[in-house]
């Protein structure tokens, strides 16, 4: 009963919901990016490495003197480039999307660490930058500009996907590439475009961590967030609106475990609380797996005239 | 330009592919080394020297290769059956956990009995860890890539919890580490006054055994058939689900054994940095070996050499040792392309 009261107290506080939106932001951006790739039929397991890359590149640009929004742009560009690499391997070359994605993650992560160490050889305490500040709005609305950007991007991706010819093309190459080709679309071009754009979004998710949530770059700072986004895409059944809902729901659980950790910290080991987000993701996958409607051409490479 | 499938892949092409991929990766990473301002040839020279330039360097490389052979085999057997086990890292830690629990004095057995017991228990722990995602895959259609990846994080948190709690070494000066395993659970050294231990022989033996199973038994035949085309295999009357679960136990078991061998052969106790990503590097090892159990040995020695050599190089030059991870990742991507070129040829038009 006492626990119930504690949880209720947490849930009605404005500070809690401010934290939820902040925690949700990288999940919103990452899930949106992965969703775009998968809607075009390409699984992008490079997400973890691309997020690390975005976190490092955006931070490094600002640390070298660029302003914050230039940092965001640099992150998106680096993400787009990594996306181009993944797309080249998986779309025209038709290589295994699983293995290529793992390769992109390994490359993105190691390259980020390499560059960071090269520029800052002996930084024992990580150097910091002046990050985005929350807007002066009441209650849970006091978020940094990148969170608002993420919310706007959900609407933009949803609009483009369902209301424009480009979006129709993306959905078509993910469902029935042969039919798309028959309509005169280039399956290769549409898929590459979607993967590049999606990867740029993933890099923004990483950049949020170093430019908004924290003010420094740490090793292992992405910490599995990319993999959770992949689970969230399935949970959201490949829809941007549901992706937003899923990310916020997930962030609410995460924020709740952080607060319960403070309340019950002495009784239970903190690792049990930290496990919850990962267990929750697996549970969500199990619950929706039966009725998940995968894009029908997901993970199937397309070669003209080959069946 | 388009790709045309080859009807026949010559053996020379299969053998040449990893060599070409590694050469391409070295050439690409030379750009990064040049960017640091270090002389490229001297840097690679130091890397080679650090990996194989002396008796000590060679034994260090082989020590590092030992767990990589096992995680490489774990990835190879799973990928063959199209079971995407990306969770070898977590399975390795579960094996190591079993090793410090059973080998830490709980069982009072002679070495010839204790060592096999600990190994079998570690393999069972690793196999059971992968069995979960495999069951979810065959029963509920849950993608095993994400579940195995997420399990890595859960296992590491579990290990962290135990190392700060039940398994914490009271003599460990407060560090989160387990008590050391008893002497009877230690693997004997292979070469005196080096770190090389008999775990290498276990890894080599398993590689040979898996090759025999692969080529000479019905098991191996079924595994390959299910990997190539599960529907056709099911139509031919093969127990597809059972093959999948069997593969999961085998793959997770190999990764778990890697954890046991690292604890009993090298470290003696368990910490949170037991594995510098052996589970993930195992994927690269398996791909470079084109999933061939014997090829895994060569690929593991190569990857181990890169890591050991890069450590030596970065001590002498201002090149961060993360260059090793970049080289390994680049080799994987180049290997994918090289593998494609052995199966397809480029045609104009």
From TrEMBL, chain A:
<keyword id="KW-1003">Cell membrane</keyword>
<feature type="transmembrane region" description="Helical">
    <location>
        <begin position="140"/>
        <end position="162"/>
    </location>
</feature>
<keyword id="KW-1133">Transmembrane helix</keyword>
<dbReference type="Pfam" id="PF02653">
    <property type="entry name" value="BPD_transp_2"/>
</dbReference>
<dbReference type="GO" id="GO:0022857">
    <property type="term" value="F:transmembrane transporter activity"/>
</dbReference>
<feature type="transmembrane region" description="Helical">
    <location>
        <begin position="192"/>
        <end position="211"/>
    </location>
</feature>
<feature type="transmembrane region" description="Helical">
    <location>
        <begin position="41"/>
        <end position="62"/>
    </location>
</feature>
<feature type="transmembrane region" description="Helical">
    <location>
        <begin position="99"/>
        <end position="120"/>
    </location>
</feature>
<feature type="transmembrane region" description="Helical">
    <location>
        <begin position="272"/>
        <end position="289"/>
    </location>
</feature>
<keyword id="KW-0812">Transmembrane</keyword>
<protein>
    <submittedName>
        <fullName>ABC transporter permease</fullName>
    </submittedName>
</protein>
<feature type="transmembrane region" description="Helical">
    <location>
        <begin position="68"/>
        <end position="87"/>
    </location>
</feature>
<dbReference type="InterPro" id="IPR001851">
    <property type="entry name" value="ABC_transp_permease"/>
</dbReference>
<dbReference type="GO" id="GO:0005886">
    <property type="term" value="C:plasma membrane"/>
</dbReference>
<keyword id="KW-0614">Plasmid</keyword>
<feature type="transmembrane region" description="Helical">
    <location>
        <begin position="6"/>
        <end position="29"/>
    </location>
</feature>
<keyword id="KW-0472">Membrane</keyword>
């Amino acid at each position: 009963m006492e626990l119930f009261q504690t949880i209720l107290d947490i849930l009605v506080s404005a500070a809690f919901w401010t934290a939820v939106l902040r925690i949700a932001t990288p999940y919103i951006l990452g899930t949106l990016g992965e969703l775009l790739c998968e809607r075009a039929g390409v699984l992008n397991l490079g997400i973890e490495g691309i997020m690390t890359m975005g976190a490092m590149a955006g931070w490094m640009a600002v640390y070298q003197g660029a302003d914050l929004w230039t940092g965001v742009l640099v992150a998106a560009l680096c993400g787009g480039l990594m996306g181009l690499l993944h797309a080249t391997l998986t779309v025209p070359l038709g290589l295994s999307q699983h293995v290529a994605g793992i390769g992109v993650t390994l490359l993105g992560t190691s390259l980020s660490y390499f560059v960071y160490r090269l520029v800052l050889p002996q930084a024992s305490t990580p150097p910091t930058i002046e990050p985005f500040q929350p807007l002066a709005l009441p209650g849970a609305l006091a978020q940094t500009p990148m969170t608002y950007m993420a919310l706007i991007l959900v609407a933009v991706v949803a609009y483009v996907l369902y209301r424009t010819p480009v979006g129709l093309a993306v959905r078509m190459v993910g469902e029935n590439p042969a039919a798309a080709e028959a309509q005169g679309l280039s399956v290769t071009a549409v898929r590459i475009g979607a993967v590049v754009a999606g990867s740029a979004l993933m890099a923004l998710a990483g950049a949020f961590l170093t430019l908004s949530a924290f003010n420094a770059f740490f090793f292992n700072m992405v910490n599995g967030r990319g993999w959770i986004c992949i689970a969230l895409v399935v949970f959201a059944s490949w829809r941007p609106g549901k992706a937003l809902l899923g990310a916020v729901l997930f962030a609410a659980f995460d924020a709740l475990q952080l607060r319960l950790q403070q309340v019950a910290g002495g009784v239970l080991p903190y690792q049990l609380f930290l496990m919850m987000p990962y267990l929750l993701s697996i549970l969500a996958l199990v619950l929706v797996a039966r009725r998940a409607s995968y894009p029908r051409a997901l993970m199937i490479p397309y070669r003209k005239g080959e069946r | 330009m388009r790709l045309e499938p080859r009807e026949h892949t010559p053996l020379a092409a299969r053998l040449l592919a990893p060599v070409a991929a590694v050469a391409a990766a070295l050439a690409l990473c030379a750009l990064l080394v040049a960017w640091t301002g270090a002389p490229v040839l001297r840097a690679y020279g130091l890397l080679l020297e650090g990996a194989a330039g002396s008796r000590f360097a060679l034994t260090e490389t082989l020590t590092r290769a030992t767990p990589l052979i096992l995680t490489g085999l774990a990835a190879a057997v799973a990928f063959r059956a199209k079971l995407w086990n990306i969770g070898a890292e977590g399975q390795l830690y579960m094996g190591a956990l079993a090793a410090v629990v059973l080998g830490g004095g709980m069982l009072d057995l002679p070495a010839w009995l204790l060592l096999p017991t600990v190994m079998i228990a570690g393999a069972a722990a690793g196999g059971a860890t992968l069995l979960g995602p495999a069951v979810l895959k065959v029963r509920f259609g849950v993608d095993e890539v994400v579940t195995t990846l997420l399990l890595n994080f859960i296992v590491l948190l579990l290990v962290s919890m135990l190392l700060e709690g039940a398994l914490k070494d009271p003599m460990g000066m407060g560090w989160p580490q387990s008590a050391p395993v008893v002497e009877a659970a230690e693997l004997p050294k292979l070469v005196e006054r080096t770190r090389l231990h008999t775990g290498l022989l276990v890894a080599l033996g398993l590689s040979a055994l898996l090759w025999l199973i692969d080529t000479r038994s019905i098991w191996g035949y079924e595994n390959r058939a299910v990997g190539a085309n599960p529907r056709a295999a099911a139509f031919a009357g093969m127990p597809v689900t059972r093959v999948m679960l069997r593969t999961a136990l085998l793959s997770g078991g190999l990764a778990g054994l890697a954890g046991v061998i690292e604890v009993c052969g090298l470290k003696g106790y368990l910490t949170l940095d037991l594995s510098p990503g052996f589970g993930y590097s195992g994927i690269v090892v398996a791909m470079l070996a084109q999933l061939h159990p014997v090829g895994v040995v060569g690929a593991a020695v190569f990857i181990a050499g890169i890591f050991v050599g890069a450590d030596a190089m970065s001590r002498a030059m201002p090149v961060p040792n993360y260059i090793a991870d970049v080289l390994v990742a680049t080799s994987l991507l180049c290997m994918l392309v090289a593998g494609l070129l052995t199966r397809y040829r480029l045609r104009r038009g």
